[in-house]
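Feature request, filed as a ticket because there's no other form

It would be nice if the structure record came with a short human-readable summary line next to the tokens. Right now we just get the raw output. Example of a typical job, pasted below so the devs can see what we mean:
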Amino acid sequence: MTLSGRAPGARVPRSTADQPPPAADPSGERNAVTLGPRDRLIGQLHIEGDLRLGGTVEGQVEATGDVEIDDEARVNASVVGRDVSIRGQVSGPVTARKRLVVAKSGSLTGDVRVARLVIQDGATFSGNVSMGPQAEPAAKPQPPESEPLSARDGDAPSAGGKAISGAQPARAGAPRPPAGKGKPKR
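Raw output as currently delivered:
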């Protein structure tokens, strides 16, 4: 008596656990995940493909493809994607590897790292922008080439955000020291 439905001597299929996953979906379609307006996510979500958010999200969201945040969505999370489109409310850092669009119905409170940025008339945005073609998630900072400069009391930061040692804020009518002579006496 055999418990298997196979005929005796039939070949047993090889386990696919030892084989790598296929490089791409054979049908050519991209993976897409949608969280509807009544869905709620608390935690981390990592998607290989596109993501559409319509509900409430708290935590961290990362997609290899595009991220769309619908009108009714309330997102209190970090968001990472290729093209990110915000029509709902987002509170948290956003990284868009290609482009970030905050639509007229959208609201974004948080720092952004983007290659391209579009904020439509009527949208609201509060935060800092780091812009350039190499937008990467903030969680992976590049190591500094040399020791970073730090701000001390009275030092004025440069445009890059690092302090220039000994630099003083400009004051109207304040005497300037002669070139190469250091700080003026107070």
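Something like this underneath would help us a lot:
Confidence is low (pLDDT under 50) at residues 1-6, 12-24, 139-175.
The longest strand covers residues 74-86.
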